[in-house]
Design goal:
Helix content: 40-55%
Order of helices and strands: EHEEEHEHEHEHHEHHEEHEHEHE
Number of domains: 2
CATH topology of the largest domain: Rossmann fold
Largest sheet: 6 strands, mixed
Number of helices: 11
Radius of gyration: 19 Å
Low-confidence stretches: none
Strand content: 15-25%
Structural class: alpha/beta
Number of strands: 13
């Protein structure tokens, strides 16, 4: 009996990486100027950031409906003996996890496992990668799930948003705070708590914010030099590579995955965002 790992495009993994891992995606859609796109299928990240740079363009996203999960789940259950593990985008940020639970209960709960990653972007991707590698290593369904759950408990998301405008749109900060933050070049450092975005600290300027990110990694991380470290960026690969150099120098890390934030996440954080993902000491 084989195990199939599913995720969704909020993990920000490129098609080539997914194919190598043997992971199949469901797609959260982004709507821009009344047209819907599936990130990395219909719209590259580069195209996405070009579109939202236009005046008064406000992208929106839609969760994956239960029927989309149900159609795929039914096909696998009827045509194969495989079990399904779907690792979902954080339920604290999307209703997609709940949609998958509805579909699971309609199809076959005994062969379909739906897990809330409580993560986003490359933090979510690190859990998906660990799950796929566990399947490739021939581990049992119970062992794969245990590895997924361990990653979920320990994964850290430390990130800087490019500007406050997207946070204002999402209700994370007030219009006054957003205007003041942009004016004073304040960078907001955030993290995740139970799958939800929570402000952590403020720093004046990107350089100081990056320095503080490295300090937080040192405070929270464990055995960082031997981990797969995740980094993402929105429309600034050069900035992500600079962050990588800082991490390499500080912790002697050599194993990285760097990915650009696509439309599913980028619709809510905008351009100029950077994140680092790693496992903590718990």
């Amino acid at each position: 009996m084989a195990i199939r790992i599913y995720a969704d495009n909020a993990c920000d993994l490129d098609q080539e990486v997914l194919a190598e891992l043997g992971v199949k995606l469901f797609y959260i859609t982004a709507t821009i100027n009344n047209k819907s796109y599936r990130d990395r299928l219909d719209l590259t990240p580069t195209e996405f950031y070009r579109l939202i740079a236009e005046p008064n363009v406000i992208p929106t996203t839609a969760q994956i409906p239960p029927m989309e999960f149900q159609v795929e789940f039914e096909k696998v259950i009827k045509e194969t003996d495989d079990d399904i593990i779907y690792i979902a985008f954080s339920s604290g940020l999307s209703g997609t996890y709940e949609s998958a639970l509805i579909a699971r209960d309609e199809v076959d709960p005994s062969r379909i496992t739906v897990i809330d990653s409580k993560s986003a972007s490359v933090g979510y991707a690190l859990t998906v990668i660990r799950a796929a590698n566990a399947v490739k290593a021939g581990k049992s369904k119970e062992e794969v799930i245990a590895e997924i759950e361990d990653n979920i408990k320990r994964i850290e998301h430390i990130f800087i948003v490019g500007n406050f405008d997207m946070l204002k749109r999402g209700g994370r900060v007030s219009a006054t705070s957003a205007a003041l933050g942009n004016l004073l070049n304040i960078k907001l450092i955030l993290h995740f708590e139970e799958g939800k975005i929570v402000p952590l600290e403020k720093a004046h300027g990107l350089k100081k914010a990056r320095k503080r990110m490295i300090e937080i990694m040192e405070e929270r991380g464990q055995d960082l030099s031997n981990q797969l470290i995740g980094i993402n960026h929105s429309n600034d690969l050069e900035g992500a590579l600079e962050l990588k150099k800082l991490i390499e120098k500080k912790f002697a890390c050599s194993n990285f995955i760097i990915s650009e934030i696509g439309a599913a996440i980028g619709s809510h954080v905008g351009a100029g965002t950077y994140s680092v993902f790693f496992l903590n000491k718990q």
